[in-house]
Each structure stands twice: as structure tokens, then as C-alpha cells.
Amino acid sequence: MINIAKGTQDLLPEVTSDWQYVENKLREIAQNYNYKEIRTPIFEHTELFTRGVGGSTDIVQKEMYTFTDKGDRSITLRPEGTAPVVRSYIENKMHGYANQPIKLFYEGPMFRYERKQKGRYRQFVQFGVEAIGAEDPAIDAEIIAMVMDIYQSFGLKKLKLYINSIGDIDSRSEYNKALVEHFKPSIEEFCSDCHQRIDTNPMRILDCKKDREHPLVKSAPTIYDYLNDDSKQYFEQVKLYLDQLGIDYEVDTNLVRGLDYYTHTAFEVMSDAEGFGAITTLCGGGRYNGLLEMLDGPNETGIGFALSIERLLLALEAEGIEIEHDDALDLFIATLDEDSKQYAVQLLHRLRKAGIRADTDYKSRKLKGQMKQADRERAKYTIVLGENEIKNQQVKLKDMNDGGEQIIELSSLTDELKERLS
Ligand code: HAM
Prior knowledge:
Layout: H1 13-32, E1 36-37, E2 43-45, H2 46-52, H3 58-63, E3 65-68, E4 74-77, H4 82-91, E5 102-111, E6 123-132, H5 137-153, E7 159-165, H6 169-183, H7 192-200, H8 215-218, H9 229-244, E8 250-251, E9 263-271, E10 281-288, H10 291-294, E11 302-308, H11 309-318, E12 331-335, H12 338-353, E13 358-360, H13 367-376, E14 381-385, H14 387-392, E15 394-399, E16 405-409, H15 413-421
Parallel strand pairs: 1-5, 7-8, 12-13, 12-14
Antiparallel strand pairs: 2-4, 3-4, 5-6, 6-11, 7-9, 9-10, 10-11, 14-15, 15-16
Helix pairs in contact: 5-9
The structure holds histidyl-adenosine monophosphate (HAM).
Histidyl-adenosine monophosphate is lined by residues 80-82, 112, 114, 120-121, 124, 126, 128, 130, 258-259, 281-286, 304-308, 310-311.
């Protein structure tokens, strides 16, 4: 038997209705904030990620599914959505569109070769949004407000929002110099990844999972001492907007995020629900002011976030929130013999074309077995078709909720059901 690849999952019919519910709600909320959908390919030229996400990141160094295609090009299955959306923005000259910023959302599978763990997959589905073409603290606040609105609209309560400012490119480079001075003399005490990070991206030492408890991480200088006035002012304004919107947050000065493109605002939402598992990050995002130019685009800036639907569903489970489904059958037609079965097939076809969810038995079950099947499908109504029903062109329509029965002309069954279901 061939098994499923590690870190991936089959979404069986028992759970796809949860997914559809979540996906529809996410789209609805994105539209309330006036974000429009973009769909980019699942694979891109590898260079997009090495340049966009950054050569020093875990994603590029360890996690990409990269292969050479038959035309000898290096191709990578997308590990995230921001670089592809920015590529598309540049390539399709969206900066020339009249309405700026361009507000986009996307949803689809991402691929990272990571160690499998609860909440961590090698193929996972991200829902993300990007607002490109405006540098305005109000849009940073809009993006963060939208994230919180999303989680709260699903009924989640045990949430923590952490924010930070990484500053602009100048502030960041001053800060990185200070971190090198701070960590360099004792770098031997850190993990092998941090040995590299000290040269490639010292800020990442601050969110190293292995060295999190090292005293030097706790005593490291904070970005605040290195933010220049513009960066400080920008962050203050973002916080002011969040305060005005009544959004609770905590400033975490060690929040630097794992991708290289961030500047200014960075944020993450965590679940503090018991039983969520070791990985508690529900979503992450931030501003990326240098990314467009790094990808040979115009001097425009952007901000966005992404969440995975897998972790959103885990959070719902951890908080005991059940999703209500509307996948029950409207009508189940039980049949008593071969002639009524033939009649049922035609009747079903008419009902379905009229928008009624209907089904019948295809396994020649006895009547009792057919009624059990109707129960399992949570059918709202049932009818039993036999010789008499067809001869008289009348059926007993049974309401499975209250057990009530009513005799109906077969010719008016569709109208009757439509009225009852509406
Ligand atoms: P990220 O922090 O790498 O950011 O991922 C965002 C979210 O994707 C995470 O918070 C988590 O919910 C989910 N995620 C990441 N890896 C996995 C995994 N292996 N299994 C399940 N879920 C996962 C980005 O991807 C940025 N592009 C976000 C962004 C958009 N920044 C600006 N715009």
C-alpha cells in the first residue's frame, strides 16, 4: 500500500465541510475590508524566494521544495504567499492602477520541509492579505484589526496579539551592529544556526527556539534604543490607531519574525488555549518596505499577514468551538421495488435541478436500512415510493424533525419542499 507523504493530510468529507465554512467566512471578511482575491501559481522561479524571503532565513536554507524542471530551470513550490503576490504586482504593473493601495487576499497551499508536529505540516493552506502601495499607519492598523476580527468572528477568545517595530532599514542596520557586539564574544555558547545568524541576520538570534532561555538573549539591547525618530513616530501612530479601535496588544521587543523582508510593524497572534499544542502561533505578518525594490519593482511599500487554516481549526478545537454545518440532505427518497426505483431516479433529477439536495438508495436496502441511511444523512424530509404512490401520484412527506406527515401530490412536491425549506 502506498502511504500519504509525511507532513501532508487528506481532507476527508467529514472535515471538508469545516474547511468550506472557514474559507467562505474568511472571504466574506476580506471583502468587508475591500480586499480582492488574487491567485498566483503554486510554483515560482527559486530566485523569487532566495531574494524575496531572504537567503539567511530557515525557509530558504532548509525548507524549500526545490527542483530542476525539464527546461533546466530551478523551480520552487511556494513556501509563502507574499513574494509571489509582490512579483505579480510588479509584473502586472499594478502600481499603475488608479486605486491605490492595491488590497489583495489569497488562499492556497504552501510547502515547507519542516519537522512534522501538531499544527505544523509540509503542505498547509494559508489565507493571507497584502495591501501594497501605501505607507500609512492606518493601513497597518487596518490589517491588524482584520486579523483580530477574523479570529473573533469564529468565536475565539483565548488570543494574544504581539506587536513590535523592526524600524526602517537604517534603524535595523544600527541595531544589528549592536547585536553583533552583544553576542559575538559568547557566540560559541549558541546553537549552530545562531553561529551563522550572527553574520547573516543577527536579529534572528532573538527568536531562536533553541537559545530562547540564554541569559544573553534576555539581556540583549532592544530595538527601541535604535529606532530613529521616523520609525518611532510610525510605531506610535500604529499603536494609537489600535488603541482607538480598542484592540488589545502587547509589545514584544524580541518579535522579529522569520522572514527577511520586514520593516517597521511586525505582529503575531498566539493562542493561549490549553491543549493547543507546542506551536501556538496562529498568524504572522508585518510591513515590508524594501521588498518591492529588492525584486526590481517600483518604490512602493506593503503590509500583510498570513494564517494557516490548519491552525485556525486547531484553535477552534482547543476552545471547544463547533462549526455548524449546512450539509444535511433536504429529501431522502426510499423505494419499495424496481419500478419505484426507476421513478425515483427521474424524480431525483427534477428535484436536484430545482435546487433541492436529494438522494436515494443505490444498494437495494430494505426499507428499514434506507431509513437508517436517511438518518445518517440527516435528511430533513423523506418520502417512500411504492406501487400505490406512483399509481395515485401522491406521497406522504415526512418531516424528520417533528415526525409530522402530510399527503402531497407528486406534481407539487418540488414547490412544497421549496416553500418548507425557504
Ligand atoms: P509566516 O510567519 O512564515 O509568514 O507564516 C504565517 C502563518 O502560516 C503562520 O503564523 C502559521 O499560521 C502558518 N504556517 C507557517 N508554517 C506552517 C506549517 N508548516 N504548518 C502549518 N501552518 C504554518 C508568512 O508566510 C508571511 N508571508 C506572512 C505575511 C504576509 N507577511 C506579510 N504579508
